Amino acid sequence: MTVTAPETSTSATEQPARSRVGLRHLFAATRGHRRNIAVALLFTLVGAGLGLLQPMLAMQTIDAVGAGGAVGWLLVALVTVFVAEAGADTIGRYWLERSGEGVVLGLRVRLISHLLRLPMRLYDHHRIGDLLSRTTADTTLLRDTLAYDLVEMLTGSFVVIGGTVAMLWLSPLLFGIVAVIVGGVGGVTLFVLARIRNATENAQDNLGLMAAELERALSAIRTIRATRAEDRETARIGHYAHTTYQDNVRAARLNSIAGPAVTLSAHGALIAVLVTGGIQVANGNLTLAELVAFLLYVSYIAVPSAGLFELAATIQRGLAAFQRVHDMTRLPTETDHTPTSLVSPASAPVLELRDVWFSYHPDRPVLRGVSFTVPRRGHVALVGPSGAGKSTILALIERFYEPDRGTILFNGYQPSIAECRQRIGLVEQTTPILHGTLRDNLTYAAPDATDEQIRDVLEKTNLTEFVSRLPAGLETPAGEHGGMLSGGQRQRLAIARALLARPELLLLDEPTSQLDAANEAAFAQTLDQVAGECALLVIAHRPATVRRAQTVIALEQGRISTDAGLVP
């Protein structure tokens, strides 16, 4: 595995310049669901069109009554239009909800896949709780925008335009009065929309921080209880909850200006039309039926008009949520530009580091020109004081990070990242155990493992007796983060999981740190067996582990040292 400094000049920690999202980005997110959205829009527009017919039918009915004509067919037509409008709205609503859920499902799956493929450096700089918030809370807020607000705005606009045309045809004078009143209030409402979006973005950001702090606290709940830190953590997390509250109140205050203003304008327009229209009817310039029809149109478009401004505010909140989702999807994923070589020299060691330099922060190198080899069989111990860079070396071998300078070879050539991780096993010092059964955890890296292979690794890691005592055996739940297991059991289970994948190189980070003396002695024998099947690179402090190694590599301050720094 030859690895050198990345060719790109952009650091993995650098985020792309923020691109302000707009409606075109939301439209792009509907790809694959546009046919369903079109069906929903069609039925919703049909319902809106049928609604626009009702004032005209009412006007004709009034004229027919005044003229003493037949009104039966007009009443039937009115009822038919009412029922048809309700049916069209129902169908449109269903397809809207279904389409919105489908779009958000696609976004969530894409976001989850993206999050699981980010470079490790990005996880070092992003809070896990905030990433969870973007996947859950932000996509939920976005769903309402996609499933309801956008199409409602389109149909509301259609109703307003259709009603406007009808009112112009009935009475240009009355329409002019309505336009002046509604237009003035509309200008004030538009002024606050951008501020609503900013307040919502801040609220969502703080909600993400609150989720991150809560995730941090729950992950260390035993420590918090043991140190009586409940009140301090409540205050810390509550700070972000309070800040979120303040931002949401600010958005609500701005929204409260728009809503009543639009309602007031609608009522004002209705009163103005009644007064002016009554004068027009008295002067003979307008018939009573035309005034009733005009009033119906004012009432009919008043709700959509008010709704348009409220929907605009809601869409701003949805765009604020989509901004956070969009920002995350634009982060670069882990890429592999490795030109895979199929040549594997038989004499090459399984692993070779040549003059490897690495730093987590510029000008603060963790590794300084590290060079060593690991043979294809045998046990190599990597020792040194804490902070010397031992775990960093394992992370570089697994290609979680790329070296700033130098070369890393696997079997004398350069495999892809996927091939590298398929052939190299890693047991971390923290021994993460996933939620699920013991079998789920054991076979995580080798889901097709046979029962015989499972029994073999259980025997090697001294877990056979423990599993046999459990009523459900391997189907026993491990608990959240392995909470149902002891520290030693978690560590042995993680080691068994790595062995089951049959790696060519097995990396162990402090594998005996949580084992008692009996299990440590048994595991030492396991290491001897494994060393005969594959290469072992073990970070160790305990002398018992180091003594069984054929080679000991001492690391100090990022350099190979002659002083092993062993614990006596």
Automatic annotation (TrEMBL):
It is a multi-pass membrane protein. Its main location: membrane. Residues 351-567 form the ABC transporter domain. GO terms for cellular component: plasma membrane. Gene3D superfamilies: ABC transporter type 1, transmembrane domain, P-loop containing nucleotide triphosphate hydrolases. It is found in: Cell membrane. SUPFAM superfamilies: ABC transporter transmembrane region, P-loop containing nucleoside triphosphate hydrolases. The chain crosses the membrane at residues 37-58, 64-84, 150-169, 175-194, 257-279, 291-315. Keywords: ATP-binding, Membrane, Nucleotide-binding, Transmembrane, Transmembrane helix. Residues 38-317 form the ABC transmembrane type-1 domain. GO terms for molecular function: ABC-type oligopeptide transporter activity; ATP binding; ATP hydrolysis activity. PROSITE patterns: ABC_TM1F, ABC_TRANSPORTER_1, ABC_TRANSPORTER_2. Signal peptide: none annotated. This is ABC transporter ATP-binding protein.
